[in-house]
Design brief:
Layout: E1 9-11, E2 14-16, E3 24-29, E4 34-40, H1 44-61, H2 66-82, H3 84-95, H4 99-123, E5 127-130, E6 133-139, E7 143-146, H5 152-166, E8 170-173, H6 180-192, E9 199-201, H7 206-215, E10 221-225, H8 228-239, E11 244-248, E12 253-257, H9 263-275, E13 285-291, H10 295-307, H11 327-342, E14 346-351, E15 365-370, H12 377-380, E16 387-393, H13 396-404, E17 411-415, H14 419-426, E18 433-436, E19 454-455, H15 460-465, E20 468-474
Parallel strand pairs: 7-8, 7-10, 8-9, 10-11, 12-13, 12-17, 13-16, 15-16, 17-18
Antiparallel strand pairs: 1-2, 3-4, 5-6, 6-20, 11-19, 14-15
């Protein structure tokens, strides 16, 4: 960053100090468990100031030429590409992502969200004649955005880019546990020349800043990515002012192997999919549903794949798995591994504690349980760590029942050598996304959940339209 912005917020086109004597929040390096800095903790007064700035610019920005918004997004994307290494280093430091993964996934996927919204905006029709009326799509208003620590930059652009494309000013509350990439993004936005008030950032806790945004009468829409518990609290606070709420929450995603799948190729990729980002992805496919007759084969393949992870310091180029991002989540993962052992799941690799060669840092051993039954906690609760559950099934009907036996419905995978069979099974799974045979990721495919995984959608045109109101003009 061009200076120490950790004690400031970005409001109304510039950096400013908090209102009053703001407390500080410690930022911890998960690789060393040591404090590496602090950030200012915002208050309701800071939120009021940010929302007021956004509201002042809404009338002009909401009707700004589409070409101007495209140009703004193009400048943001270009600056992010120029500063990609700085973003990657910040993410490795603040939440422990292996530097190679930060460079290959965390940062490029974040930029892809900006590029996708440019594509959407170029072809979108905000006015459409219909039978007896004209359909008009208009910016909804000031939007509050609450983002998590696990994909800190990626989740920011997944919300900020469509809001700007739609003509909505925003107030962003990034996770207080991974604040540095957000501060770098605020510098990008400033240097891209956004009009004052279009983008505002207030750091702080969910209890203070998140609650104030959720209840604020001048916020028209709030988008949160986080735990189901946090989503419920936001929705309850937002209900008083009847604002739109878009929630991308928890998951317990299945990876369903049909008996005609290429197990030799697909099982190692299943371990990779479930454990990338140290398993800290809400849509990570952490339940491997496999034919009972193939259980021994799957166990051997999965164990071998897990052994190939290199756990270590995020800044080491050879590392493929860094630490869990924070102390609370580390404790959660360790508790869930112990629960799996207590409830009788069969541990086939990994287990409690750190890898043997690491004596500090929130490092977890890549862990796989087999013989997991649907009543076990590790099969039902989101763990958010590199912990996979192998669950045998009897037949296709049993497999689909098992896949849907969860309060969540965010992501799912199906592996099969028969495209038609895989499509038929995918249509029976209650999930916002279903991936067949590990397709390429795209920032255009709508992402969001069924059931307790949330409501609304992000990415592409479907995410863009969450920031729009629908008007019918009859004449």
């Amino acid at each position: 960053m061009t200076g120490d912005r950790s004690g400031q917020f970005y409001i109304d086109g510039g950096w400013c100090d908090p209102v009053g004597d703001a407390p500080r929040i410690a930022v911890i390096d998960p690789a060393t468990e040591t404090q590496i800095g602090t950030i200012a903790a915002g208050s309701a007064a800071d939120v009021d100031r940010a929302v007021a700035a956004a509201l002042r610019v809404f009338a002009s920005f909401s009707v700004s030429p589409v070409a101007d918004r495209i140009a703004l997004l193009e400048r943001i994307a270009a600056l992010m590409e120029q500063r990609a290494e700085a973003f990657a280093q910040a993410i490795a430091l603040e939440m422990g992502a292996a530097i190679g993964f930060a460079r290959a996934s965390q940062v490029p996927f974040a930029i892809a969200h900006v590029r996708a919204q440019i594509d959407v905006l170029r072809g979108y029709r905000f006015e459409r004649p219909d039978a007896g009326f004209t359909l008009v799509k208009e910016a909804i208003g000031v939007c509050a955005l609450i983002t998590p620590w696990n994909w800190p930059l990626y989740q920011i652009t997944a919300k900020v880019a469509p809001a700007i494309a739609a003509g909505c000013p925003v107030v962003l509350k990034p996770s207080e546990m991974s604040p540095y990439s957000a501060l770098l993004f605020a510098e990008v936005v400033h240097d891209a020349g956004l009009p004052a008030g279009v983008f505002n950032l207030v750091n702080g806790t969910g209890e203070a800043v998140g609650a104030a945004l959720s209840a604020h009468p001048d916020v028209a829409m709030i988008s949160i990515t986080g735990s189901t518990r946090a989503g419920v609290l936001v929705a309850q606070a937002a209900a008083v002012s009847v604002k739109r709420v878009v929630q991308e929450l928890g998951g317990k995603s299945p990876n369903l192997f049909l008996d005609d799948a290429d197990f030799g190729a697909a099982v190692p990729r299943a371990v990779m999919a479930g454990m990338r980002n140290v398993g800290q992805s809400c849509s990570a496919p952490t339940r491997l549903l496999v034919p009972a007759a193939r259980l021994d084969e799957v166990e051997a393949l999965a164990t071998q794949a897990a052994s190939e992870w290199r756990v270590g310091a995020p800044t080491d180029e050879a590392t493929t798995m860094g630490p869990i991002a924070n102390a609370a989540q580390y404790a959660r993962v360790q508790a869930m591994i112990e629960a799996g052992l207590t409830e009788g799941a069969r541990l086939i690799c990994g287990g409690p504690g750190r890898p043997a060669d690491l004596n500090r840092g929130y490092y977890v051993r890549p862990t796989i349980f087999s013989g997991v039954t649907r009543d076990m906690r590790i099969a039902r609760e989101e763990i958010f760590g590199p912990v996979l559950c192998i669950m045998p099934y009897a037949d296709d009907a049993d497999a689909v029942t098992l896949a849907n036996d969860t309060v969540y419905g965010l992501g799912a995978h199906v592996q099969s050598g028969d495209a038609a069979r895989a499509q038929a099974v995918a249509r029976r799974i209650r999930s916002g996304q279903v991936h067949i045979n590990y397709p390429a990721w795209t920032a255009h495919a709508p992402f969001g959940g069924y059931k307790q995984s949330g409501n609304g959608r992000e990415y592409g045109v479907h995410g863009f339209e969450e920031y729009l109101e629908t008007k019918a003009i009859l004449a």
